[in-house]
Design brief:
By secondary structure, this protein is α+β, with helices and mostly antiparallel strands. It has one domain. Helix content is 45%, strand content 13%. It contains 3 helices and 2 strands; from the N terminus they run αααββ. A two-stranded antiparallel sheet has the order 1-2. A hairpin with a 5-residue loop joins β1 and β2. α1 packs antiparallel against α3. It is flat and about 45 Å long.
Length: 83
Amino acid sequence: MRLFIPVPYVFLTIAIMILSSERLQQLINKWIVEQSEDKEKVFTIPPIDKKELRGIVSELKNHRGLGLVNVKAKDGTEVIVKL
């Protein structure tokens, strides 16, 4: 069975805006600190720069069809993810 799921770059841009929001990052880091057993050695997510992510997405647009994932299982199942 072949399954094709197109994801417009508009959705990717919206996801970048949501993930790079300061409020969401603060909530995620707060949750990480609360869930951590060792409060002194907690890894928090560094701030994400919107401009850098937008530059990455615009560069990815130039490489359409690039294979990101190509996995073949022993039973013949195959997963291919392309831009």
